[in-house]
Each structure stands twice: as structure tokens, then as C-alpha cells.
Design a protein that fits this description.
Layout lengths: L1 H11 L7 H20 L6 H8 L3 H7 L3 H13 L2 H11 L8 H19 L2 H12 L5 H10 L1 H17 L8 H22 L7 H19 L3
Length: about 220
Amino acid sequence: MASAVRASEAETVGQGPSGRSARKRQDIIGAATTLFLRNGYQGTSMDEVATRAGVSKQTVYKHFADKEELFRAIVEGVTGNSDQVVAELTAAFAGAEVRTLDDLVVRLTSVARHYLDAVLRGQVLSLRRLVIAETERFPDLARAYYDRAPSRGIDIIATALRTYVDGGLIAADDLRLAAAHFAYLTLSITQDKAMFSPADQPGEAERDYLSREAARVFVAAYQVR
């Protein structure tokens, strides 16, 4: 009987991966993610988080000492979702062997389209705006976001481009610079516009066109002559 009581108490205080406390923590994180991404740090209160999560304010403070700790947990958690973007970008480089410049344009067009779709997702854009807005308050979070998201994407591209350099299709002394050129050819126009006008998103045809042009211009600039 005593052991059953202890087990029940453990679940209540969240000792372990499951239990009521763990579920409440996830509810709090979900509510706070929505509010922080929508309203920013200053525009979000712990009272609002508690109300949206359906818990008491005291419960919120049992899990997070203050708003800063909660904010850090949210940004770090959402930033961790960049793993999905990296996986998609890596997968886009897979496929049949690239033998010609035309093959390379086709491959990079596919990569560009996957990359474009990934960064134009609503939550990705919202997080980017949030991190930029709070850079002075949380410089370490901003740096972590850059390292785990934009910088990792460029690293993935740079690694993939090495194959095409070794194959004699393109020439690049600085692979990371070349990767950054490709990334910004792909993203800069639409991402910059979407940062200021979230509802102004390119349609399927425009995304296809921009992806093809990014690949074509990159290959034209870097092809072996």
C-alpha cells in the first residue's frame, strides 16, 4: 500500500518521463511558445501563459523560476527543431550521381526548393523575428540560434559542394563562402520580404522559379572554365 502511494506521489510531482506534472509542463511550454512567438518577450506575461495552459500561475512557477527561464526553454526548444531542416537539406543532396553541369543545376534546384520551403515556415520566421528582437537582452540565445540554424545549413551545403569540386564541375577555394553564396541566392529575396510581411509568401510557381534561378546563377558563377 505504501509503495502504491509513493508511486502515485512520484507521478504527481513528475518524477519520470510521464505523469501529470510532465503533462502540465508540456502544456505550459506549448502555451508559452505560442505567446512568445506571437507577442514577443515583453508582450507576454506569466499570467497569460498560465491562462492559456489551463493551469495556475503557481504551477507555472513550480516549473520555471521566472519568465526569463521559461523564455530560454522555449527558444532553445524551438531552435532544436532546426534538426528537421538540416535533415531535409541533407536528404535533398542525395540521389543519382551528378555527372554534368546540367545534372548539377537540377540537383541544386531541388536543394534550393527544399531550403526555401523550410525557412519560409511560419514558426521558423516567427522565431527568427523573436530572436532578432531580443538579441541585446539574450545575446547567448541569439548566438546559439545562429550556430544551430543558419550556420549549420551553410555547413551542410559546403560539405556537399566538396563532391562537385572534387568531380571537376565547379571550382571553389573557399567552400563555406561558396555555400553562403548559394544560400543567399536561394533565400535572401523571399526571406527578407517575409520577415517584414509575413502574409506575403511566394506561391508554388514562384518558388520553383526562384529555386531554378538560384541554382543556375550559382553554377554559372562557379563552374570550371
